[in-house]
Design goal:
single chain; mainly alpha
């Protein structure tokens, strides 16, 4: 038996050292992974904050531009621009203006139902009833 101890002595000492080395690598790798994840979370949090600030700024600029556009579309602003550019535009005469009168849907349906012959009324009621 003494011979077996001499032959296996290097293997017996190498096994625990290998286990300890692998355990250290695992713990070290886990620590590095944890720090990397925390760094990523911090980076993403900063990006979200920066983009939120940029979004607020863009909304503010968009509101200012919308207000400016609304001011430019008012009739006094349009008249001032026409005079400034010397376009010599005048309002159209009343004879060129066409006014369209809209009929509300309830009145239009009532008029068309009244114009339909009485033989078709039961059919329309059955269609409208489902």
């Amino acid at each position: 038996m003494a011979k077996n101890r001499k032959n296996n002595s290097a293997a017996v000492r190498f096994g625990p050292a290998l286990k300890a080395f692998l355990l250290c690598i695992f713990i070290g790798g886990s620590g590095v992974g944890y720090v990397w994840q925390k760094n990523q979370i911090d980076t993403l949090g900063r990006q979200i904050h920066d983009r939120g600030v940029k979004l607020q700024e863009l909304r503010r600029v968009n509101k200012l531009k919308a207000d400016h556009l609304a001011a430019l579309q008012t009739p006094p602003a349009i008249d001032a621009r026409i005079k400034k550019l010397n376009l010599a535009l005048v309002p159209p005469p009343q004879s060129q203006i066409v006014r369209v009168i809209e009929i509300p849907m309830k009145s239009a349906v009532a008029e068309t139902v009244g114009a339909v012959p009485s033989a078709r009324l039961p059919l329309m009621n059955s269609v409208a009833g489902f």
